[in-house]
């Protein structure tokens, strides 16, 4: 039997109007009364009538903005499929989702996209931030002054009032990569190159940080080269790899934190080094499975792409629609390890 607002009101000893204000976040109620009403609603198993609420809110359409970086890369394209899936659900209840897709990584374009979202009167934003003080200040402005809640996904930014983050624990991803690669060089050591995408992408920089931390502490015989940045471009990655091989002919391994693996593998193939250099790469998409199967890549470390696009939109919709806050600050996706034998 469906629990009604009247039943909750009777048990709590308050009016139905008070219960309605508490459950639908429609007005101020004394904290002790709100706590009592919510506790009784939970005990009775109350569930809101979502269809009825959607119809009732149709005049105040919920609008959620999504800002993505590196939108032309395979991983983000997969994440945006999750955004599209969430968009369909939001639209079924009368809401809408608008997107701003940024090619590459750009603080300036991100700031402009946030201003555009404000002009379009979005109620909330899911975004991939860039490590930039201006973006940190802008997120706090939106949260504190404009009362626009923000969820970050794929990459995070510290020192802001964003309500939660959805994505991989990038530091642990880097540590996982180091623990796996280090075993190839534990006895004799060797030189390992680290190739990342953009220094301003916190997800990628945290992978590098975790990788270097474990290598330094657990594999002292290994020499890590300075991190270089391919801007998630295959041609640039190939050029960087060629330079690394010229300067370090005895190179033993490569850790790729980002897109650009094809360019690195092309370089290794031209140099006839594809079989004697250990390569750990990121993300289970693009040509990575093929490269893994052929032996160019030894280990792939993946994450849930579509979930990183889907869940931020739905977290914000549940917050706006039901008044349901996120269950935790960090919604980490699984770290998935693949070899040629379990793809």
TrEMBL record:
<dbReference type="GO" id="GO:0003677">
    <property type="term" value="F:DNA binding"/>
</dbReference>
<feature type="domain" description="HTH lacI-type">
    <location>
        <begin position="3"/>
        <end position="57"/>
    </location>
</feature>
<protein>
    <submittedName>
        <fullName>LacI family DNA-binding transcriptional regulator</fullName>
    </submittedName>
</protein>
<dbReference type="InterPro" id="IPR010982">
    <property type="entry name" value="Lambda_DNA-bd_dom_sf"/>
</dbReference>
<dbReference type="InterPro" id="IPR000843">
    <property type="entry name" value="HTH_LacI"/>
</dbReference>
<dbReference type="Pfam" id="PF00356">
    <property type="entry name" value="LacI"/>
</dbReference>
<keyword id="KW-0238">DNA-binding</keyword>
<dbReference type="InterPro" id="IPR025997">
    <property type="entry name" value="SBP_2_dom"/>
</dbReference>
<keyword id="KW-0804">Transcription</keyword>
<keyword id="KW-0805">Transcription regulation</keyword>
<dbReference type="InterPro" id="IPR028082">
    <property type="entry name" value="Peripla_BP_I"/>
</dbReference>
<dbReference type="Pfam" id="PF13407">
    <property type="entry name" value="Peripla_BP_4"/>
</dbReference>
């Amino acid at each position: 039997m469906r629990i009604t607002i009247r039943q909750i009101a009777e048990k709590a000893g308050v009016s139905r109007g008070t219960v309605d204000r508490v459950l639908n976040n429609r007005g101020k109620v004394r904290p002790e009364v709100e706590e009592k009403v919510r506790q009784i609603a939970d005990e009775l198993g109350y569930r809101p009538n979502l269809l009825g609420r959607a119809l009732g809110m149709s005049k105040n359409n919920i609008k959620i903005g999504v800002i993505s970086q590196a939108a032309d890369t395979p991983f983000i394209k997969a994440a945006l499929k999750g955004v599209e899936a969430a968009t369909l659900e939001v639209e079924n209840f009368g809401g809408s989702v608008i997107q701003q897709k940024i090619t590459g990584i750009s603080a300036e374009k991100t700031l402009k996209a946030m201003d555009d979202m404000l002009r379009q009167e979005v109620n909330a934003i899911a975004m991939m931030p860039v490590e930039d003080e201006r973006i940190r200040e802008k997120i706090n402005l939106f949260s504190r002054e404009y009362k626009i809640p923000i969820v970050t996904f794929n990459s995070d930014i510290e020192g802001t009032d964003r309500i939660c983050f959805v994505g991989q624990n990038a530091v642990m991803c880097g540590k996982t990569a180091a623990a796996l690669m280090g075993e190839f060089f534990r006895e004799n050591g060797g030189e390992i190159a680290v190739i990342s995408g953009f220094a301003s992408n916190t997800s990628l920089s945290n992978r590098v940080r975790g990788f270097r931390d474990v290598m330094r502490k657990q594999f002292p015989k290994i020499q890590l080269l300075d991190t270089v940045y391919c801007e998630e471009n295959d041609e640039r990655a190939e050029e960087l790899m060629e330079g690394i091989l010229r300067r370090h002919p005895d190179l033993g391994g490569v850790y790729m934190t980002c897109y650009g693996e094809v360019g690195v593998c092309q370089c290794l193939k031209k140099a006839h080094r594809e079989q004697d250099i250990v390569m750990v790469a990121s993300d289970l998409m693009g040509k990575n499975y093929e490269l893994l199967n052929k032996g160019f890549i030894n280990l792939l470390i993946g994450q849930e792409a579509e979930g990183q696009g889907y869940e931020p939109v739905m977290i914000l919709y549940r917050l706006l629609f039901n008044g349901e806050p996120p269950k935790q600050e960090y919604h980490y996706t699984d770290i998935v390890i693949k070899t040629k034998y379990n793809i």
